[in-house]
Design a protein that fits this description.
By secondary structure, the chain is an alpha+beta fold. The protein is built from 10 helices and 4 strands; from the N terminus they run E-H-E-H-H-H-H-H-H-H-E-E-H-H. Strand 3 and strand 4 form a beta hairpin. It starts with 10 loop residues before the first strand and ends in an 8-residue tail after the last helix.
């Protein structure tokens, strides 16, 4: 039986296809000092739900995104190597993380396999090596279980219900913080949660749209 995400907990949504999820996880020592539940979710499924076009489908945006990820890695001193193709199909890696309820060290190892070592987890050899890297040689069988697939689908359904629209996304005190560059905002709001209830922030949340759909 699959269980819904506990929305009362601090949450962190990620997808292995996202270089910015990797960069943010490598800054874990800067996160607020509270336990975040790590939630694997398909960012492309989120895009489909919200009607967003991924950066990979806009050639100049795709090129900029990769350059920006490399720049941020160099700026932060984080080892970074693009996998041989991108985007790649992250489904099996997400299923593996969901199947074992991957903890922080395991998720770190999986991200580093892709974004530090530059490996593609979607190929048969790449996925087998990823399973070996986390000590799960039978991972191929795990990702085929219906329970595993149901768990990943439940993560997606719950993420959408919580208005998650991309990764990486923190959810803290019922508020979303999207993107690697949102970490300073998360830290500020963790210290000063009243800011989100300030008149100007609330006004921005209700700002009318001046262009008709």
């Amino acid at each position: 039986m699959t269980h819904s995400i506990d929305a009362a907990m601090p949450l962190w949504f990620y997808d292995f296809v996202s270089p910015f999820s990797y960069l943010l996880l490598e800054q874990h020592d800067k996160w607020p000092s509270m336990p975040f539940a790590l939630v694997p979710v398909s960012v492309h499924a989120l895009y489909r739900h919200w009607g967003q076009r991924p950066a990979s489908e806009v050639p100049p945006k795709r090129a900029f995104t990769y350059r920006h990820a490399l720049f941020r890695a160099e700026q932060l001193g984080i080892p970074f190597k693009m996998p041989p193709v991108h985007p790649f199909d992250s489904t099996k890696a997400l299923l593996l993380a969901a199947a074992i309820d991957a903890d922080l060290p395991t998720v770190c190892t999986m991200f580093r396999f892709i974004w530090r070592d530059g490996r593609d987890p979607s190929t048969p050899d790449g996925f087998a090596d990823l399973c070996s890297a986390i000590g799960m040689p039978h991972g191929e069988r795990l990702v085929e279980h219906e329970e595993t697939k149901s768990r990943l689908q439940r993560n997606l359904d719950d993420a959408i219900a919580l208005d998650v629209f991309g990764v990486p996304t923190f959810r803290l005190n019922r508020q979303l913080f999207w993107g690697e560059d949102a970490l300073p905002m998360l830290l500020y709001c963790a210290r000063s949660p009243g800011w989100l209830e300030s008149p100007e922030v609330r006004r921005l949340g209700d700002l009318p749209n001046g262009i008709a759909s």
